[in-house]
Design brief:
By secondary structure, the protein is an alpha/beta fold. The chain folds into 2 domains: 1-41; 48-217, Flavodoxin domain (Rossmann fold). 49% of the residues lie in helices and 18% in strands. It is built from 7 helices and 10 strands. The protein has helices spanning 2-45, 72-84, 101-113, 146-154, 176-184, 196-201, 203-217, and strands spanning 51-55, 60-62, 66-68, 87-90, 92-93, 120-121, 132-138, 161-168, 187-188, 192-195. The strands form 3 sheets. Strands 1, 4, 7, 8, 9 and 10 form a 6-stranded parallel beta sheet that branches. Helix 2 (72-84) packs across helix 7 (203-217).
Length: 221
């Protein structure tokens, strides 16, 4: 009788361990994956980390959009700043570019060929308190405007995270993310690449693209 009772106790114990063993991993797996994703989002977007939007943009006559009052890249810069609460800094050349499109392209090409560093105006921002720099620019002759490199020379960005966004009319990113990484020694994220026409004429669509990009970077509200 005692032997039979002992065998029943062992069987009951075995069933109890099997039930716990089958249920625990599922609970642990489900509980560990969800908080991990949420923690990443909070770490970037809600932990007090600060961002700065730095951009170069030109209004006046532009290819495919005509004469405009607000530059294509500036439109995106303002959308990003509004969505993230980031501060902004505009890279402004001391010598403005011509209002006409063709003379501007000629000057831009000359500056690129000479690897020039056009003078820029304003007090350079202190980036020591910023974790992420959103960097915006148009694609000029397959590169950033040379004034952006002037900014890189003046402001130490090594060790920062740079999130590039650019406007173009057919050239795409043109490898400028690699140029930025080489010039700044910063960590460069996936870029937002958009036509100037979209930024200028389809701002609802542009906002959706900006929001999707920010979400990928962990900056979604």
């Amino acid at each position: 009788m005692k032997k039979w009772l002992a065998m029943m106790a062992l069987a009951l114990c075995a069933l109890t361990l099997t039930a716990c063993g089958g249920g625990a991993p599922a609970k642990s797996s489900g509980g560990s994956s969800a908080p991990k994703t949420e923690t990443v989002k909070k770490d970037v977007a809600s932990s007090g980390k600060r961002a700065l939007v730095v951009y170069f943009s030109r209004a006046d006559e532009n290819y495919n959009v005509g004469v405009i009052e607000k530059g294509n890249t500036r439109i995106l810069a303002e959308m990003i700043a509004e969505a993230t609460g980031a501060d902004t800094f505009e890279i402004k050349p001391a010598k403005p570019y011509p209002k006409e499109y063709t003379p501007t392209t000629e000057r831009a090409k000359k500056e690129k060929n000479e690897n020039a560093r056009p003078e820029i105006v304003g007090t350079m921002p202190d980036v020591s308190g910023y974790d992420t720099i959103f960097l915006g620019y148009p694609i000029w002759w397959g590169d950033l405007p040379m004034a952006c490199y002037t900014f890189f020379d003046k402001v130490k960005l090594e060790g920062k995270t740079i999130a590039p966004f650019c406007t173009h009319e057919g050239s795409g990113l043109s490898g400028t993310d690699l140029y930025i990484a080489d010039a700044t020694k910063a960590k460069v994220t996936e870029a937002l690449v958009m036509t100037g026409e979209t930024a200028q004429k389809s701002q609802g669509e542009a906002k959706k693209e900006v929001s999707a990009w920010l979400k990928k970077l962990g900056y979604a509200k």
